[in-house]
Amino acid sequence: MTHRFHPLSGRDFEFVVRRRNWGEDRVYCRDADGEFFDARDVVQVKYEMVRAVTVDKVPVTAAAAAFGYSRPSYYQAAAALAGSGLEGLVPARPGPRRAHKLTAEILAWAEQALAADPALRPAALAGPIEANFGVRAHPRSIERALARHRERHSKSR
What we know:
Blueprint: E1 13-21, E2 24-31, E3 36-37, H1 42-54, H2 60-66, H3 71-84, H4 104-116, H5 126-133, H6 139-156
Antiparallel strand pairs: 1-2, 2-3
């Protein structure tokens, strides 16, 4: 399929269709039993790994290795599948989920600095914030964080 260690390596597949999905070329195939499989579909690969253990009674270590995952990854996939169904196997968006560098303390300091000098722009606070707090933040991130901070505080008054 994708490499010689893949669990479906060496098997014959019937070409079904080639499509361009999400900017990638995807090839869809069926095996001799008519089963559909896309080796680059993470959800399907994890599902098949969990199914191999639960239905085919393949040992966890063997199934995880055969599908290119670690044992802990198998247990995470099994728990996600049990808890949320197939939706639980969809990879989460990488990276931070919210702003986390500019704390309330830093934003309060920034508000005071802006109030003390009306000519000062929020974007100009990137250097002083790094110097005073050791936090590197993009100037636009500072502007957005201050706007959110002001919005929250204006509603609470």
